[in-house]
C-alpha cells in the first residue's frame, strides 16, 4: 500500500466521522441552546448529575467535530508531504532560519535526584565497609533471617550484633572468655568457643546470658549441624570433636589434622572442611562417617583461618597475613584471590540466601562483599574504606 492510499483512507474516515458528529449535534435534543427537555430534567433530578450527563456530552460533541475536521486536513497535508519530501526539508530550513537552531534547556527538575544516584551507586558496589569499632574480631557468623551478623571480639570477650543493612551495632553478650569463634542456630542461640578456658558455650541472644555446654581443650573453631550437633576444632591437638546439643556429650573425634586447625564448615552431606593456619595454610576435607581426611589444597605462604562453603562446589577462606579472600574449587583444589585489603582478617561468613560474603578483622572492621562480584573474572580486587 502506498503512502497516498494510507493518507487518503485516513482522510476519508475522518471526514465520515465529522459528518456523523454534525448530524448527532443537530438531531440531539438539548444540543446548542439548552432545550426545554433538559430544563425539565434539571428541575426534577439532581442538577449536577444532569449537567454531567447532558452538558458534558454536548461539550464532547463540540470537541469531536473540529477534531475530525482537523484530522481530515492533516491527512491531506501528510499525503502532500509524502509525495514531495522536499517540502519537509524546505519547511525545516525556513524554521531554522527564523528561529535559529534548537536549544536544549535542562532545568533542576530534569536532573537525577541525589537519592536515586546514591541507590544506583550502592547497587553497583561490589563491597561495603559496614561497621567499625568491633574490637579485635576473630569469629563471625551471620543470620540472614534477622539481617544480622555476629562478630566475636576476642580482646573484649564480647559478642557484637550488627545489622548488616544499617551498620547499627550492640553488645549481644559479654564475659565470654577467650572467644575464638561463633555459630548461630537461627533460633535465638549462639555457640561460642573459649580457647583459653577450653569451653563450648551457649549464648542466649535475647538476654545475653551464657552457659557452658562442654569442656573442649583448645576449642577454637565451631560449626553447627542440622541434626543438633556442634563440631569444634581443637587448635592444640589437631582434632575435630563432635558435641551433642544441648547435652554436651562428645562423640568420636577426627585426629591427625595437625596443630593450628581453626575454622570449620559443614556441607550438610557428611563432609566437614577445616582450615589450618600452621603447616602451609592447608584446607582439609573430612568424611564425618569414617573420620578420614584429605588435603584439598595448600595456600603457600598463607595462614588459612576460616572456611565458608557456597553449596555449589566452592569454598572461601581468608589469609590474615596478606588480608586476602580466596575462592577454592573443592573438586580439584584450584584457587585464586578474589579480594585484598581486608586487614588482619580473622572472621568469615557466607550469606548464601542474599549472596553476601562477610569478613571481619582485628582492626574492628566488618566488610560485606558481593558474592557474584567475587566469582567474576578478576574478583573484587582491593577493598578501600
TrEMBL record:
InterPro entries: 6-blade_b-propeller_TolB-like. Residues 87-98 have a biased composition (Low complexity). It comes from the Bacteria. Residues 74-86 have a biased composition (Polar residues). Residues 1-35, 74-110 are annotated as: Disordered. This is SMP-30/Gluconolactonase/LRE-like region domain-containing protein. The lineage of its organism: Bacteria, Bacillati, Actinomycetota, Actinomycetes, Kitasatosporales.
Amino acid at each position: 500500500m502506498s503512502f497516498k492510499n494510507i493518507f487518503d483512507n485516513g482522510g476519508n474516515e475522518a471526514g465520515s466521522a465529522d459528518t456523523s458528529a454534525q448530524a448527532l449535534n443537530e438531531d440531539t435534543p438539548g444540543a446548542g441552546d439548552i432545550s426545554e427537555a433538559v430544563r425539565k430534567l434539571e428541575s426534577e433530578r439532581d442538577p449536577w448529575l444532569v449537567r454531567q450527563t447532558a452538558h458534558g456530552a454536548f461539550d464532547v460533541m463540540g470537541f469531536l467535530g473540529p477534531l475530525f475536521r482537523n484530522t481530515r486536513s492533516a491527512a491531506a497535508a501528510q499525503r502532500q508531504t509524502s509525495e514531495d519530501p522536499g517540502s519537509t526539508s524546505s519547511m525545516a530550513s525556513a524554521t531554522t532560519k527564523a528561529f535559529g537552531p534548537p536549544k536544549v534547556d535542562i532545568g533542576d527538575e530534569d536532573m537525577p535526584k541525589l537519592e536515586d544516584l546514591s541507590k544506583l551507586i550502592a547497587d553497583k558496589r561490589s563491597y561495603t565497609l559496614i561497621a567499625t569499632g568491633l574490637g579485635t574480631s576473630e569469629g563471625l557468623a551471620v543470620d540472614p533471617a534477622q539481617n544480622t551478623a555476629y562478630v566475636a571480639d576476642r580482646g573484649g570477650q564480647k559478642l557484637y550484633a550488627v545489622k548488616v543493612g544499617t551498620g547499627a551495632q550492640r553488645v549481644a553478650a559479654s564475659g565470654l572468655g577467650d572467644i575464638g569463634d561463633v555459630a548461630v542456630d537461627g533460633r535465638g542461640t549462639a555457640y561460642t568457643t573459649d580457647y583459653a578456658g577450653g569451653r563450648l558455650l551457649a549464648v542466649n541472644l535475647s538476654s545475653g546470658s551464657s552457659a557452658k555446654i562442654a569442656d573442649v581443650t583448645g576449642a577454637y573453631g565451631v560449626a553447627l549441624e542440622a541434626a543438633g550437633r556442634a563440631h569444634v576444632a581443637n587448635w592444640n591437638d589437631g582434632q575435630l570433636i563432635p558435641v551433642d546439643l544441648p547435652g554436651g556429650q562428645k562423640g568420636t573425634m577426627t585426629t591427625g589434622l595437625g596443630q593450628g586447625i581453626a575454622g570449620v564448615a559443614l556441607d550438610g552431606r557428611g563432609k566437614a572442611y577445616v582450615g589450618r593456619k600452621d603447616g602451609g595454610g592447608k584446607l582439609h576435607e573430612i568424611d564425618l562417617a569414617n573420620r578420614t581426611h584429605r588435603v584439598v589444597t595448600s595456600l603457600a605462604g598463607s595462614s588459612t583461618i576460616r572456611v565458608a562453603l557456597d553449596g555449589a562446589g566452592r569454598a572461601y577462606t581468608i589469609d590474615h597475613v596478606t588480608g586476602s579472600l580466596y575462592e577454592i574449587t573443592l573438586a580439584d583444589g584450584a584457587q585464586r584471590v578474589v579480594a585484598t585489603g581486608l586487614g588482619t582478617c580473622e572472621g568469615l561468613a557466607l550469606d548464601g540466601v542474599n549472596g553476601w560474603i562477610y569478613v571481619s578483622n582485628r582492626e574492628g572492621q566488618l566488610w560485606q562483599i558481593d558474592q557474584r562480584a567475587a566469582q567474576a573474572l578478576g574478583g573484587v580486587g582491593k577493598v578501600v574504606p
